Known about the structure:
The protein has 291 residues and is α+β, with helices and mostly antiparallel strands. The chain has 2 domains: 5-134 and 234-270, Periplasmic binding protein-like II (D-Maltodextrin-Binding Protein, domain 2, 3-Layer(aba) Sandwich), CATH 3.40.190.10; 137-231, 3-Layer(aba) Sandwich (D-Maltodextrin-Binding Protein, domain 2). The chain contains 9 helices and 14 strands. Strands 1, 8, 11, 12 and 13 form a 5-stranded antiparallel beta sheet that branches. Strands 5-2-6-14-7 form a 5-stranded mixed beta sheet, with helices on both faces. Strand 9 (160-163), helix 5 and strand 10 form a beta-alpha-beta unit. The longest helix is centred in the N-terminal third of the chain and has 17 residues, at 32-48. The chain is globular. The protein starts with a helix and ends in a 21-residue tail after the last helix. The model is unreliable at 10-32 (pLDDT under 50).
Amino acid sequence: MNRTLKSLLTLSLGSTFLLTACGSNSAEDNSTDETASEDASWENIQEAGVLKAATSGTYFPNSYHEEGTNDLTGFEVEILREIGERLNLDVEFTEMGVDGMLTSLNSEQVDIAALSISHAGENADKFNYSEPYKYTYMSMIVREDDNSGIQSMEDLEGKRAAGAATTAYMQIAEQYGAELVIYDNATNDQYLWDVANGRTDLIINDYYGQKLALAAFPEIPIKIQEDLFFNPSYTNFSMKLGNDTLTQEVDKALEEMHSDGTLSALSEEFYDGEDVSVEQDFDMPTYEIEE
């Protein structure tokens, strides 16, 4: 890839859906008033000619600023731009964290967010979701010399797990007895060095993102625990609950992008040749997230 990984790469701070959850999750049994409201929302978007999108801007390779130009790009960013083109809309990006995305969707400051919300979490039934555009699974970064003392999930008891608050990754770590060490948009090298130096013990996150992180920082004595791959998951876009027409239009564009190979091409560009847009038959355990 033609980019300097060390200056761009950060770990994913977003939550993920579990594959055991349903896919596109639109509101059901809407009243006539709600249907009219969501139709008006779509009509307003069309009239303005703008799709307002929220993205992190700090999550390589999904949403980041290109070194040298500072232009916003990334896998999710370019998918949203392509969706906008297919819907004859300009895409206006606003960069914000997870909590800001939730609030901005509900207040209609943005129309769509590059944010997947755990269906096991408290926000599961509060938003509409697009069809998936990425399939992956969870893995765990540990110290290279001793696996941070972790051979199984039960070994997380008393260990220090690094990550962002309220994510599915941290929920799983907490369920298995880990102490949570919360970071807010920290750079990847800080996350990784803290594991290596013993400030923390592990990072649960997306496998493909962690693979890129390790390739970018080969000098840091950490690794992916090769015996612990789990929780196949998928990622999609979130929209305000009840905005069904917008959801349908986004899904239509995504389906076209799947069919014509656009999603695969974007994935291979940003994930170093990996096609994360295709669902695979992952043979690995799923650890349920308790409500």
